[in-house]
Specification:
By secondary structure, the protein is mostly beta strands. The chain folds into two domains: about 140 residues, no CATH class; about 35 residues. It contains two helices and ten strands. It has a five-stranded parallel beta sheet, with no helix packed on it. The protein has a five-stranded parallel beta sheet with strand order 2-4-6-8-10, covered by helices on one side. Helix 1 packs across helix 2. It is elongated and about 55 Å long. The two termini are about 30 Å apart.
Amino acid sequence: MKNIIIKKNENLVLPVIWRGKKKEISYNIKLAGVGSSLTFLMLLLGKKEDKVKIRVNVDHQNIETKSKVIVKGIIDDSANVDFNGLVKIEKGSKGSNAWLSANLLLLSDRVIGRAVPDLEILENDVKAGHATTIGKINDAELYYLMSRGLSKAKATDLIVQGFLNGFLDYEK
């Protein structure tokens, strides 16, 4: 487990890429200082029989803290991804702003993808939200692209590129 403490007015951008080697990834991040902020970007690229269990905890402990956790995964073959994310906004953390999202694109019928976002909000004057999607490539989209002359492989690549588009444009 990696423990990270972000101090007053510090801004941490933390990119993490999983390519199937690690079996467990765990982060415990505390926004301890006034005005501290975190951007956590995780890209998951699973294939064959890769398996990972991921836990990301973000704890807002002071006023005017900000966090953005964005997880995107492309999972193929018989890979298995299990993601649990928790954002906690402690009492006294007025003005905090938190976002947690996890999106997994499953490229095979044998893939297992699970994503559970949790918010624990103990303060009233905050903004917080979360979103999760897990799904396969839409057959209608694939058919449409193939009807325009693309091979199935090229059409799939284009859909995957679209899924990842904007991942690094995290300021929006």
